[in-house]
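Quick check before the chapter quiz. The format below is the same one you will see on the exam, so make sure you can read both the input and the output lines.
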Amino acid sequence: MPIPRDRWLPLKDLRITPEGRWESRVRLGPSSEWFSGHFDECALVPGVALLALATETVKRQGREQGRLLEVSGFSGVRFRRLVFPGEELLISVGAMPPGSEAKLDFHVTCHGNTVAHGELKATQELGSFPVTDRGFAGT
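Here is the expected output.
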């Protein structure tokens, strides 16, 4: 059974680059929930949405590798460019190394221009069951 599409975090094209980075793409259309109230006269993607997209890229790539990853914080985040409805974003995150905790750099770009960048703290939930496409194995 396919995983239903997430209307808040509609990531697509998840991949691992030849350099080992985790990437995904997203295009938030004008009807996206993220634009509700932000701002009616000139819709903009909120910064928190960009952080949520980086977080979700880590979580989904972790699941692909059978790891349950969470993001517990951000540091050094800089927002460099406004993002408008319909623009495609590329989210790129340093891959999670072996171990239970790491700081990973992330970049969000649009048309090759930096939108946001910084560092996120990722942790692996230890003692969890391996993850499959239908949930946790053994449950």
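If your answer matched, good. The mean pLDDT is 87.
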